[in-house]
Design brief:
Helix content: 25-40%
Structural class: alpha/beta
Strand order of the largest sheet: 4-1-5-6-12-11
Strand content: 5-15%
Number of domains: 1
Number of helices: 11
Oligomer: single chain
């Protein structure tokens, strides 16, 4: 997808495209199907779509995968995420009827439908992650219908972050990373795979900072900041500097306590097994030199703005509405 050429303001959306989340436990496990959370992108598209032109990219130029578990109705409840999750869990313990379940949650169904419409409009046909043993019963039903609804859409192409950096550096190419007002990266577990240990993500973050482009990261996406230790020279060599310009700033992300809940009680649970990923994001960011602030209640909303480096982070789907509203106040009026 080429960068827009109109006179409208521009935003860059970098979507994680990893489709498999490795697990360290159970031993020998091949990993679980994963993707990105639409809810953490769609509100941005809704808020800014009438005035902004979007450029969509992925770390390696792959088509991103929708995380089916991120489409559970409770994920679309924003500030009411906690109560919606409790209600949904209770409703699925015994006999479950999907039509009754949806009829009791019309506002959440309407929001999800509108967000899926935005995905079809902007992103085309996308693969969808597999349902897991711990997946919400309603999204298991949704998955087949969702795939059918996208089968006749065109499959878009997505430039890689590396390609965008090369174009930015090419004096004969009009593409300019500095022309974007902001870059937004949604979460889901996919960023844990392709946003980390990625020199081109690091180069993008620094190029954005140097050009006063606001950086917007939510949920698992702040793990991208662990790649800020890298710069990529014009000759392609990678330079590592732990004392980079972002070092020591405040960030927030999904808390370890929230991840442990998902691993032991949520959709990543494997019955009868202890489940662990390779790392926890908040710990990885602390190890990378950041001041990581999370909430005691993992479903509470946390949004942090670091003006000196123009970095906006928030801690999960419950924060997306507040995150988007804050982003709006920080952007120039056009």
């Amino acid at each position: 997808m080429n960068a827009p050429t109109s006179s409208r303001p521009k935003a860059l959306i970098v979507i994680p495209s990893a489709a498999l989340l490795p697990l360290t436990e159970p031993a020998g496990h091949p990993g679980v199907s994963t993707g990105f959370y639409l809810v953490e992108l769609a509100q941005i598209l809704k808020e800014f779509g009438d005035e902004y032109d979007f450029t969509f990219a992925t770390p390696g130029g792959l088509v991103p995968q929708l995380e089916i578990n991120g489409l559970a109705l409770s994920m679309h409840a924003a500030a009411k995420f906690s109560s919606a999750t409790v209600s949904a869990t209770a409703a699925q313990v015994f006999r479950f009827d999907v039509d009754t379940f949806r009829a009791k949650r019309p506002e959440l169904v309407a929001r999800r439908d509108s967000e899926l419409a935005l995905a079809r409009r902007h992103l085309g046909r996308l693969p969808v992650s597999e349902a897991l043993p711990g997946s919400d019963k309603e999204v298991v039903v949704l998955r087949d219908d969702l795939i059918k609804s996208m089968q006749d859409l065109p499959e878009h192409t997505f430039p890689s972050v590396e390609q965008l950096v090369h174009r930015h550096r090419d004096p004969e190419d009009a593409f300019d990373l500095g022309a974007f007002d902001f870059v937004h990266m949604p979460g889901g577990h996919a960023p844990m795979v392709d946003f980390v240990d990625n020199p081109w993500i690091g180069e993008l973050l620094h190029t954005a900072r140097e050009n006063q482009v606001l950086i917007s990261l939510i949920c698992h996406a702040p793990v991208a900041m662990a790649s800020a230790k890298y710069r990529v020279s014009p000759d392609g060599s990678v330079v590592t500097n732990p004392q980079h310009a972002f070092n020591g700033v405040r960030v927030t992300t999904v808390a370890k306590s929230a991840e442990l809940f998902v691993l032991s009680n949520g959709y990543l649970k494997i019955p009868g097994k202890k489940v662990r990923m390779g790392y926890f994001i908040d710990e990885a960011l602390r190890d990378a030199g950041y001041q990581v602030q999370t909430t005691t209640n993992p479903t509470a909303i946390k949004v942090i703005w670091e003006a000196d480096v123009r970095l906006l982070t928030s801690n999960g789907p419950q924060a997306i509405d507040e995150h988007t509203a804050r982003l709006r106040t920080l952007l120039p009026r056009h």
